[in-house]
Amino acid sequence: MALLDLESVHVYYGNIHALKGISLTVEEGEIVALLGANGAGKTTTLRTISGLLRPREGRVRLRGEPIDTLPPHVIVYKGIGHAPEGRRIFARLTVEENLKMGAYARSDAQGIRDDMDRVFVLFPRLKERIAQVAGTLSGGEQQMLAIGRALMARPRLLLLDEPSMGLAPVLVEQIFETVKSINQQGTTILLVEQNAYMALTIAHRGYVLQTGEIALSGRAEELQANEEVRRAYLGG
Amino acid sequence: MRTDRGSWGKVISGGLIFGGAAAFVSLAGMVEALGVREIVIGVIDLGRLLLLLIGLGAGYQAARRGIGGALTALARGLLAGAAAGVGLSALLVLASVVNLRGMFINASPTLLEIISFGRGTAGVPLVIAAGAVAGALGAVATLLPGAVRGPLGAGVTVTIVVGLFQELLQIILQEGGIRSAIRQFIFVPEGLPPRGALGVFLVVLVVSAVWRSRQPVVRGWILKRPPPQQRLVRLLGLLLAVAVALLLPLAGGLFISQVLVLVGLYTLMGLGLNLEVGFAGLLDLGFVAFFAIGAYTVGLLTSTGQYGIAHWSFWAAMPVALVVSLIAGFLFGLPILRIRGDYLAIATLGFGEIIRLLALSEALRPWFGGSQGVLFVPKPIIGGFEFSGPAQIYYITLASSVLIAFVAARLRDSRLGRAWMAMREDEDVAEAMGINLVNVKLLAYGIGGAFAGMGGAIFAVLLGSIFPHSFSLLISINVLALIIVGGMGSLPGVVVGSLFLVGLPELLREFSDFRFLVYGAALIIMMQVKPEGLWPAAMVRRELHKEEPVGVVAEEPAAVERVEA
Predict the structure, then answer these.
(1) Which of A44, A78, A90 is the best mutation test for B, with the most CBs of B within 10 A?
(2) Which of B75, B101, B214, B420 is deepest in the core (most CB within 10 A)?
(3) Which H helix or E strand runs over A10?
(4) In the CATH scheme, what architecture does the domain B254-543 have?
(5) For position A23, what pLDDT does the model report?
(6) Nearest-CA residue of chain B relative to A102?
(7) pLDDT per residue as tens digits for the range B438-477
(8) CATH number of the domain to which A212 belongs
(9) Å from A223 to nearest chain B CA?
(10) Residue B556 scores a pLDDT above 70
(11) How big is chain B by its Cα radius of gyration, in Å?
């Protein structure tokens, strides 16, 4: 059974039909990339999965159990972590407080400490800046913090929204390396990216969204080789 | 940028602005009205002091912004002060040419006499010279090293305060051997004479200077003690604070007690609103509603008059008032759960008015008494002791404030407190972290409301009667202003804020006509000079410290640092 599956999900913003019957699956242990142009519905899809938006039709299931009617905080408890677009760290809190906030849904003090250490292994920079106010971190560090914070909930499925946005190329590479190692440690990842090339180098499979519909899907290598994808997203 | 701000043209225009401010407070009538209150007999009154302070301020700010040596700073202060004098003189000249009184009724001959030192337009050079001297003094203040400026400032401030409150102090020092000895040393029956002022100034100067030089030594000595002894010192400090708090109404008499009770009630409300606005980030302009609900609950449950329904004692009614305002908070929160920001402010504003209008309405008059209010609310009695007046009710207020402050501190550091903090910073992300926004919001409204309800309950027995017009929008605004002035999200800030915005105006009755003028000016100055509040919360202090090097690892968040270096 798939870890996550969406079955013909329709989402509206008022009268605007944002998602027009999206169906996708994410298997345990995978990195799945969700590609597409601006406004294609990538972020909407993630927000629907984490319960911030409600589908008007269709189902979202986690291990076969429908979650599309659950409120967001319950979905967090079910094991879906969300690192939202634009980083959205708590700018006035310190790095440490941000990470603790990520573990809000948990109460096992020892486990939280262990996971914080794990985050610091992934992102040694954060450990150096543990007492610093998060708003004063650099863009890359803020992105690390956003990912680290999402990991603190110890999710089985991590939703990453545009982790490379606004970062220098060398940092983008570093972030993607880390995403890969997070996955190798056992966290399934659904990754939304505009940087299709980078996303497909670490992903196992991918979906291409176009104006609220899935235009293409397949294994990462297939997508990378696909003429249409190359023309539209990979600049070649 | 710096050189631009420091240019001489800026100095003059800055000074003129201060002069304009001086002319404005004069025309508003403050100088004349406050002139009634002598600070030091025969030397200076409050009105003139105000003008003097404006001159000092002009010099101070001009000197502080400049670059260059002491002489330049002095010259800048002198120039700015003179410019302020010119600004004020313009008023004199204008008044001699046209009849200002047609438009400004306060431009009286007395006022002009005060400003011109009794010389009319011939006083203009004198005013400018006085401005220059004041400005130069202000500039000198920036040049002095802290070790001199601190004690000097303390001396001047305390002398002014003693002069300002001479009447109250004289009452406090009325009887008893040592007390009346102090009184006779400082005061004459009419007020503070120059001799007494000098005495007070010198004593404070010396004490402050000694304390300044000894303080590190004392602190070092305490820090070297073993922990149990350190704890003892802290305990002694706490006991001292408690003793002062307990003895205040005894020493201060009825009037002081009344003021203190008001401060306490506003502290209770402030703690509640601070929880909503400061902790949870939910702006609430209808906060007075909870205060009213608490007051009416106690009033209706205890009153022996026609609207009383149960004739309970205060002690039985107060917990009920807490619960009722808690529930009111939940109900209040429900319809506005999805509203954010500005819209939330307007919606809450409506709630406050609804409650007041319900209490006032004719339709509900059989239950709430309409505009006639609920009368005959009995005083609380405990084992034969009646809390009959402000001096006794003060203790109820004190105990409740301490209790509520403790609860608020525990809540802030709890899991719920963290959820509030996350919600304040970013609602969407907080939700994605697994925080149940509905529960957390309702709890903020409910608990905040309960705090205010407790204040209302005490308010009911303080007055012994409740009228709808006591619960105006102005109270909500006041409470909001006091938590902003004290420091958003800070618990000690609430106390400091209510002392400043509630206690001080009560003590300075002369200000009552100008209360909102002073209020507005104080808020603007505050936001300019110390936007984080008088006693800011740790986090806000951190945020406004950006100019300092950050990224120092493993250091505790700076304990008690001043923002202005």
Answers:
(1) A90
(2) B420
(3) strand A4-13
(4) Orthogonal Bundle (1.10)
(5) 96
(6) B433
(7) 999 999 999 999 999 999 999 999 999 999 999 999 999 9
(8) 3.40.50.300
(9) 31
(10) no
(11) 26
